[in-house]
Structures are given as structure tokens and as C-alpha cells.
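Sharing a chain and its predicted structure for anyone who wants a worked example. Both blocks are below, sequence first, C-alpha cells second.
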Amino acid sequence: MVLYSEFNTIDDFQTYQSHPEHQNVVAFVREIVSDRHVVDYET
């Protein structure tokens, strides 16, 4: 599973992180994956 996301501002990213629907997806992903890697970067 891969999730690729782009945000215009750090505020947009933080809103996304705390959004209830995103939190539902986080809970689902935790159930189905055995390992996880994250890459965050700013340009």
C-alpha cells in the first residue's frame, strides 16, 4: 500500500493529519500492514 500526498502549506498538512476521516484510515492501515516507512520533505 502506498499513500502519496502533497500539501500547499504546513497548516494544510496538519489539518489533514488530525482530520477524523484520515484517523479512520490510519486505524485501518495499522490493521493490515506489517511494516511502515514514512518520508516527509519540503521543497
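Comments welcome. Residues 14 and 24 are 16 Å apart (CA to CA).
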